[in-house]
Amino acid sequence: MKKSILSLTLLLICLHGFATETKLMVRAKAKDAKFVGSSIGGAHVIVRNSLNGEIMAEGNTTGATGNTDLIMKSVHERYTELSDDKTAGFLAILDINEPVFVQVEILSPIHKKNARVQASTELWLIPGKHILGDGIVLEIPGFVVDILKPNTHQYINLGSIPDSGLPIEAHIVMMCGCPIEVDGIWDSKLIEVKAMVKKDGESVGEVELDNPAQNSFQGHFGIKEAGYYQITVYAYNPKTGNTGVDIVNYVVRD
């Protein structure tokens, strides 16, 4: 019995000894923008064995969003590195003793459920053959849209609504948290932002939201009757195909 245990122990030691440390850098990059990092809470990365689903590494991307001039303003030639040692990423360190086919899955941005995108790819990892630099970069399309006014399930007295209409305000950023503003790098003039309004389940109109300040989109919608209301704010850039949506429900009472 002791001999069997010793043999098994030696076998495990040998198997572990043959395992080779293999590094894989994973990054999430917002479409038409920069990398998803600490400023917005990061992207969640899961590296799985594609054969059996075993999670081999897991964690969040951390670091900065990257060099704006390099990423957004420069012409990129083949092999151009868009990241540096401060750019957000997740470094998976795996011990493998043979090539493994893995799935890399990203949930981004991890803390924004209404905007969170799942993206994935697959690749072979070979023992000791690191994939570093930019590494594996998965694109995250969309906008993060947060309706600030009115609030979810807010009760509003009909008589308190001004003649100009109920204020509607949304905060909108790129998926990396990068700012949107008039004539900025991410120009709000290229983005269609509207609020679609329903009363008791029926559409009652929509209003275009202006961008008076960075990331802030505002407008007013006239309300004459009490009821159960829903506002859907969407952002759409026809040039890039980026879209984003947030929805709130509230009550107007007499």
Write the layout of secondary structure elements.
Blueprint: H1 2-18, E1 20-30, E2 44-49, E3 55-60, H2 68-73, E4 90-96, E5 100-108, E6 117-125, E7 131-140, E8 143-149, E9 155-157, E10 166-174, E11 192-199, E12 202-208, E13 210-213, E14 216-221, E15 227-236, E16 243-253
Parallel strand pairs: 1-7, 9-16
Antiparallel strand pairs: 1-4, 2-3, 2-5, 5-6, 8-10, 10-14, 11-12, 11-15, 13-14, 15-16
Short description:
Residues 1-19 form the signal peptide. The protein is mainly beta and 254 residues long. It has two helices and 16 strands.
In round numbers, the mean pLDDT is 94
Number of domains: 2
CATH architecture of the largest domain: Sandwich
Order of helices and strands: HEEEHEEEEEEEEEEEEE
Task: Write the CATH fold name of the largest domain.
Answer: Immunoglobulin-like
Signal peptide: 1-19
Keywords: Signal
Organism: Flagellimonas abyssi
Protein name: DUF4198 domain-containing protein
Structural features, described:
The chain has helices at 2-18, 68-73, and strands at residues 20-30, 44-49, 55-60, 90-96, 100-108, 117-125, 131-140, 143-149, 155-157, 166-174, 192-199, 202-208, 210-213, 216-221, 227-236, 243-253. A hairpin with an 8-residue loop joins β5 (100-108) and β6. The longest helix has 17 residues, at 2-18. The strands form four sheets. It has a five-stranded mixed β-sheet with strand order 9-16-15-11-12, with no helix packed on it. Strands 3-2-5-6 form a four-stranded antiparallel β-sheet, with no helix packed on it. The chain has a four-stranded antiparallel β-sheet with strand order 8-10-14-13, with no helix packed on it. The chain has two domains: 20-140, Immunoglobulin-like (Sandwich); 143-253, Sandwich (Immunoglobulin-like). The protein is built from two helices and 16 strands. By secondary structure, the chain is mainly beta. This is DUF4198 domain-containing protein. Residues 1-19 form the signal peptide. Keywords: Signal.
